[in-house]
Design brief:
The longest helix has 26 residues. The protein has seven helices and twelve strands. A hairpin with a 5-residue loop joins strand 4 and strand 5. The chain has about 270 residues and is of the alpha+beta class.
Length: about 270
């Protein structure tokens, strides 16, 4: 694993390549924010990826995203996951691993949510700290992804980009209800790891396919760069670190109004 901080002020740059995946992660503060409240983490195997975005406008966003990542790192380890997977057969087309992985992820979300909830109470903050989280786990022949908030997961398969997650936001609720009345702000989050210890993640999975590219990102990318441009970059001829650089720099070129975090993972 290569980890350093080149052109990314206040952030991270991580590259991993092995027989299973090629992964590249970048996180930086952008041009406007005074600090980077995003956090990324990639297990040395490249098979567990996490990205958290501290809630903008709230106190201690960086602390919240770091605390969430630290809690998840303790729960989502290859050894722990392997030890808890049961040797059972699939039923009605459902992954044999899904119930156990669902439990593992839900437990990790619960522990992180409780830790930040208790920290908010301890500090008695006027405005509570909080964070989004989006993660990806590669387990055998399957890929699992989960999220809380508006940090997103995408997949490029056969040159087509699909958004895998739906933002937990007032805007998405408004769209789901028929888009009646004035649209709320897209960054008004309705679910986060913050003041609710009972928060739940959305968890999904699919079979792994060689050549697929998964993207995890904060809204510092998606607010600045269109899905069409993201798809164009991912379909380009650059290698995975090069594609990650292009995505990061596209957000900066569009104004870099927020912290920007990107993790790309290509299935070998």
């Amino acid at each position: 694993m290569i980890e350093n901080t080149p052109h990314v002020e206040g952030g991270k740059y991580i590259n991993i390549e092995n027989s299973v995946v090629i992964v590249s992660g970048i996180s930086g503060r952008g041009y406007v924010r005074k600090s980077n409240e995003d956090n990324i983490w990639i297990h040395e195997s490249g098979e567990i990826l996490l990205l958290a975005d501290g809630m903008g406008g709230h106190e201690r966003g960086a602390e919240a995203s770091r605390a969430a990542i630290d809690n998840f790192r303790g729960q989502l380890t290859p050894g722990l996951i392997k030890s808890q997977l049961n040797e059972i057969t699939s039923v009605s087309g459902i992954s044999a691993q899904y119930p156990t992985v669902y439990t593992i992820i839900s437990r990790a979300v619960s522990k992180a949510a409780n830790a930040i909830y208790e920290r908010n109470n301890e500090l008695n903050l006027e405005r509570y700290m909080g964070t989004t989280i989006v993660g990806l786990l590669i387990i055998g022949v399957e890929v699992f992804w989960f999220h809380v908030g508006d940090s997103r997961a995408y997949r490029l398969r056969d040159s087509r980009l699909d958004q895998l997650t739906t933002d937990h936001s007032a805007y998405e609720d408004w769209k789901e209800a028929g888009s009646v009345g004035t649209a709320p702000g897209k960054n008004l989050i309705t679910r986060a790891i913050a003041n609710n210890p009972m928060v739940e993640a959305d968890i999904e999975y699919d079979e792994k396919k060689s050549g697929d590219i998964y993207l995890l990102c904060s809204d510092g990318l998606t607010d600045m760069v269109t899905d069409e441009k993201i798809e164009e970059i991912l379909n380009g001829e650059n290698n995975i670190p090069g594609k990650a650089d292009l995505l990061f720099n596209a957000a900066l070129s569009a104004g870099g109004m927020d912290n920007v975090s990107v993790i790309l993972c290509k299935m070998v």
